[in-house]
Amino acid sequence: MARIAHLVAIAALLTVGTAQAKTQTFDLTITDHHFQPEAVTIPAGEKVKLMVHNQDATPEEFESYELNREKIIPGHSQAVIFIGPLDAGEYPFFGEFNQATAQGRVIAE
């Protein structure tokens, strides 16, 4: 019985690993309190991973009401934010600590 449970656990891990391998990654950089690029185009209907690299010395908070996400990214560090699957459309986001300059949008198409 223990052997079957062990095999099931291995199969589950392989399935999770395969699903994660298919997740596309998109990079965002924060420099001088701006998101670069300002617009990220992702495939509609798929879960994707945003890698947000904060190159500023100060923290920033990635926030989006439409994406239902908020995450603080300390200075000189990075964060992973999973989004989707999304319907086709535009989803704005902003930096909570620098709203005047840190603006961006995710475009799902």
Automatic annotation (TrEMBL):
Q: Which UniProt keywords apply?
A: Signal
Q: Which residues form the EfeO-type cupredoxin-like domain?
A: 7-108
Q: Which residues form the signal peptide?
A: 1-21
Is Signal a UniProt keyword of this protein? Answer: yes
Establish whether keyword Heme is in the entry: no
Q: Which Pfam families match?
A: Cupredoxin_1 (PF13473)
Q: Give the transmembrane ranges.
A: none
Name of the featured protein: Cupredoxin domain-containing protein
Source organism of this protein record: Guyparkeria halophila
